[in-house]
Specification:
Helix content: 40-55%
Largest sheet: none
Distance between the termini: 122 Å
Number of helices: 2
Keywords: Lectin, Membrane, Transmembrane, Transmembrane helix
Protein name: Concanavalin A-like lectin/glucanase domain containing protein
Shape: elongated
Organism: Parasponia andersonii
GO molecular function, one term: carbohydrate binding
Length: 111
């Protein structure tokens, strides 16, 4: 009582995996070259990403941005003036101390 061996042969009604060969007519075997019909570039592809809307007409910048720029420029200008003033004060002190030492006036000047 043994069971029969499984059948491993391919089925006879199986469809082939390769396409059928082309017909062997002379027209099908000789390639025909046709000139291009149009030399224009292909149409642009449409994308799903939309470009941002154009800015509104007018002066271009919102009021908050303009106020921020004015305040920032003002603070920056004032800090530059303070930095130049502090440099000038310290430079004058240095020159005065150096001059007093050269003249032999004060040995230790705390100005």
């Amino acid at each position: 009582m043994s069971s029969p061996a499984p059948d491993t042969s391919p089925p006879t009604n199986a469809t082939p995996l390769l396409p059928p060969p082309p017909p062997s007519t002379p027209e099908a075997t000789s390639p025909t070259l046709s000139p291009p019909t149009s030399l224009a570039p292909p149409p642009p592809a449409t994308s799903l990403i939309q470009s941002p809307p154009p800015p509104p007409p007018g002066n271009g910048l919102p009021t908050g941005t303009m106020v921020g720029m004015i305040v920032g420029i003002g603070i920056g200008g004032m800090s530059m003036l303070v930095a130049v003033g502090v440099f000038f004060i310290f430079y004058r002190r240095y020159k005065m101390k150096k001059k007093m030492r050269e003249q032999g006036g004060l040995e230790y000047c705390y100005l």
